[in-house]
Amino acid sequence: MELKKIIEALLFVSQGPLKIETIAQILGDKSIEEVKQAIQELIKEYAERQSAIQIIEIAGGVQFSTKRDYAQYIRKLYKDETILKLSASALETLAIVAYKQPITRAEIEQIRGVEVSAVLKTLVEKNLVRPCGKKETVGTPFLYGTTQQFLVYFGLKSTDELPSLEEINVEQEQ
User: Fold this and answer.
1) What is the pLDDT of residues 137-163, one digit of tens each?
2) Cβ distance 134 to 140 under 8 Å?
3) Which listed residue, 13, 36, 79, 80, has the most CB atoms within 10 A of its CB?
């Protein structure tokens, strides 16, 4: 079977991003470089034929995605199922975690100036934030960080792609 067709089949059935290493491991006889080359060729082929579907690099892997031009039609098909609704307080808390991770609940509360237990619980339930360790201090509080689902939801390869605080005009604490 042709390598590109196998990769297409794997991407088509996967529930989320597939790491290139995982694809190479599944194939067994192909190197990571061969898999990367085949993926780049597929990306080029989809672009050349101006397909509504594309392969994107996201959250440390690759996956199929529709182009943004077709989002309005997909939303109509799935109604509100595709939209993750977050309150302003959840978005604020999520932004703090994304930019300051790993961070404790108390540190988030100090920045926001309000209690965030319920909001943090919601973000964990929605798999956007996760406990990622404990801080070596009195009480050993949990440290929180973003998840792979966070990267997928916001269309990021990694948190390095977040805009800088200067770019979005946010004053930084000294």
Assistant:
1) 888 999 999 998 898 888 888 888 888
2) yes
3) 36
| Cα 55 to Cα 170: distance, rounded to the nearest angstrom | 33
DSSP symbol at 68: G
The number of residues in the chain equals 174
**Same domain for 93 and 157?**
yes
Same domain, yes or no: 110 and 53:
no
- Which one, of 109, 107, 94, lies nearest residue 146 by Cα? 94
Measured on CA atoms in the order 2, 28, 59, 119, is the torsion positive or negative? positive
Buried b (16+ CB within 10 A) or exposed e, 138-168: eeeebbbbbbebbbbbbebeeeeeeeeeeee
Q: Which domain holds residue 100?
A: 88-161
